[in-house]
Amino acid sequence: MKKIYILSLKKNEYLSNLYEILKEFNIESKNLLKNLKDNKPFPVVLDDSIGENFIEKIRDITNFKVEESYSNELEKIDRWGVLSILIFDVIFILSIVEIAFKTADIYNIMLNIITIQKFPIIIVTILKILLVVVLLKGVINITNSTPIGYIFKLHFIGDTKNLVMFLLLPVIGFYMINMGFGKIYELFGLFLIIFFVVSILTAFENLQIKFKKSTNS
After folding, report:
1. CB–CB of 102/128 below 8 Å?
2. How does the average pLDDT of the chain come out, rounded?
3. Would the pLDDT of 25 be above 80?
4. Count of CB atoms within 10 A of residue 165's CB?
5. Which residues, at least 6 apart from 157, have a Cβ–Cβ distance to it below 8 Å?
6. 3-state secondary structure string, the chain?
7. Percentage of residues of the chain with pLDDT beyond 90
8. Do strands 209-213 and 2-9 pair parallel, antiparallel, or not at all (unpaired)?
9. Is the pTM value of this prediction over 0.90?
């Protein structure tokens, strides 16, 4: 679906042309003139193929903007699907980061540079988390999806910052549990993981973290 917002006419003389086009597509036009006078967008929702045809008709006579409409609930991924995708994303990203750091032997390098007890662990953990952020933001920006979402041809719909922040919760929780700094850190790490799961299951739409199945898949 496409949602087309007619913002204004390029010339006032084009009003009658626009009415004719709306009539051609069986679009109710009773609020058109009022919206244009009040500088409010006039919304039109059409199927993709019809929407493209409509856009071509109004392109030369109006100023407009287009956004995809994701109102079809059958195409959306439910909370359990979103949680599953994000869990696999966390596992996938963590695996890549751990393999990369073990291959480069970063911990021993830091141990040779920093001799203060436990500092190498802290520095390496921070570097791992930063790498996770870089990989996540990079993949999301390039593919408009997460690594696992891209494999399943899912489009991410929402706030990228929120998505990265919530994916970091289990990542930080994992490292806090495995740093070996004591029970308090382990419990807090476990809390972050539980909070991540509960938040996705109860409020993922309010967090603006949604996925839509590609219509081309």
Report:
1. no
2. 85
3. yes
4. 13
5. 70, 210, 211, 212
6. CEEEEEEEECCHHHHHHHHHHHHHCCCCCCCHHHHHHCCCCEEEEECHHHHHHHHHHHCCCEEEEEEECCCCHHHECCHHHHHHHHHHHHHHHHHHHHHHHHHHCHHHHHHHHCCCCCHHHHHHHHHHHHHHHHHHHHHHHHHCCCHHHHHCCEEEEECHHHHHHHHHHHHHHHHHHHCCCCHHHHHHHHHHHHHHHHHHHHHCCCCCEEEEECCCC
7. 43
8. unpaired
9. no
What is the C-alpha to C-alpha distance for residues 131 and 177, in angstroms, rounded to an integer? 19
Q: pLDDT at position 9, please?
A: 93
Summarize pLDDT for 136-193 with one digit per residue, the tens.
989 988 888 899 999 988 888 777 888 899 999 999 999 999 888 889 999 999 999 9
Q: At what angle do helices 160-178 and 79-104 cross, to 10 degrees?
A: 60
Amino acid in position 53: N
